[in-house]
Design brief:
Blueprint lengths: L6 E4 L3 E6 L10 H16 L5 E6 L4 E3 L4 H5 L3 H20 L4 E5 L2 E3 L1 H8 L2 E5 L3 E3 L13 H9 L1 H10 L2 E3 H6 L5 E3 L4 H13 L3 H16 L2 H15 L3 H11 L10
Parallel strand pairs: 2-3, 3-5, 4-6, 5-7, 6-8, 7-10
Antiparallel strand pairs: 1-2, 8-9
Bound molecules: 4-(N,N-dimethylamino)cinnamoyl-COA.
């Protein structure tokens, strides 16, 4: 495992990655992004990990955005490189073969909301606040927000957040379909772990195909996406879990997954 200064990584069947810069409200600087990228590589290589939870240290913030102080000193080329690193991180999360859950405590702003949206599911504490306030800094979202937010909540609401820089609370985020579940803030991790346990009870192989096909709905035109689904569906027929799952149903018993 690589040495981490800005993250806490607790490995297990359900692994927990905590962004740990609470004094800067867990803002994403280059070092945090590089450490996350390295950690995701370790997660990908570890076949025993079934679900990854991403959260922020402390009670005030999940991630309050890209690091504004660091960005204020970047040259255009450095800004481009920073954006590229961030985009790659979001794609690495989306490309992980296992489900990733964002457990959002406090602020998820700018790059923080973009990070949460790269995850498969979002659980929010009641104290969570979501927004893309970059416009107030003379910027626009730089880690995929203009695309992923519109995809998740539709154009009208995406424009409201990105062009006005407004924040919404957890309840509104849930009503908009941005968040899957709002829970009491002091139960956030426990509730997120419960959700992770439900995912672990599924076939890891089927989950992997489902995640890849869902991603195709974002990255492909509909026709290509539908074809992708056919291939992913077909692939599940090559696995042991499809035989076990359908057999268990017929035999009226719980399936025993082999995750392949
Ligand atoms: N970066 C760095 N430090 C931050 C920060 C951030 N995003 N957010 C907060 N902090 C720091 C504060 O500076 C403060 O540090 P000290 O003064 O104590 O040293 C500490 O965290 C506590 O913050 P506050 O004192 O401000 O706490 P409050 O409760 O009063 O306010 C707040 C909380 C979240 C409302 C406020 O901190 C705030 O408005 N923060 C900024 C939120 C924001 O604008 N986020 C979006 C960041 S921009 C791109 C690549 C990426 C992006 C854009 C372009 N390219 C290169 C093209 C992405 C951009 C963003 O994410």
């Amino acid at each position: 495992m690589t040495h981490l200064e800005n993250l806490i990584f607790e490995t297990g069947e359900i692994s927990l990655l905590t962004i740990n810069r609470p004094k800067a409200l867990n803002a994403l600087n280059r070092q945090v992004i590089e450490e996350m990228t390295r950690t995701l590589r370790d997660v990908r290589d570890d076949q025993t990990i079934r679900v990854l939870i991403v959260t922020g240290a402390g009670e005030r913030a999940f991630v309050a955005g890209a690091d504004i102080a660091a960005m204020s000193e970047m040259s255009p080329i450095e800004g481009l490189e920073f954006s590229r690193l961030g985009h790659r991180l979001m794609q690495d999360i989306e490309d992980l073969p296992i489900p990733v859950i964002a457990a959002v405590n406090g602020f998820a702003l700018g790059g923080g909301l973009e990070l949460a949206m790269a995850c498969d599911l979002i659980v929010a504490g009641e104290n969570a606040r979501f927004g893309q306030p970059e416009i107030n800094l003379g910027l626009i979202p730089g880690f995929g927000g203009t695309q992923r937010l519109a995809h998740r909540v539709g154009q009208a609401r995406a424009r409201q957040l990105i062009m006005l820089g407004e924040m919404i609370d957890a309840k509104t985020a849930c009503e908009w379909g941005l968040v899957n579940k709002v829970v009491s803030s002091n139960q956030l991790l426990a509730e997120t772990r419960d959700l992770a346990a439900k995912l672990i009870a599924k076939s890891g192989f089927a989950l992997r195909q489902a995640k890849a096909a869902l991603r195709a709905s974002f990255t492909m035109e509909e026709d290509a996406g539908l074809r992708f689904e056919q291939s992913a569906f077909g692939l599940t027929f090559s696995g042991a879990d499809r035989i076990e799952g359908t057999k268990a149903f017929v035999e009226k018993r719980e399936p025993k997954w082999q995750h392949r």
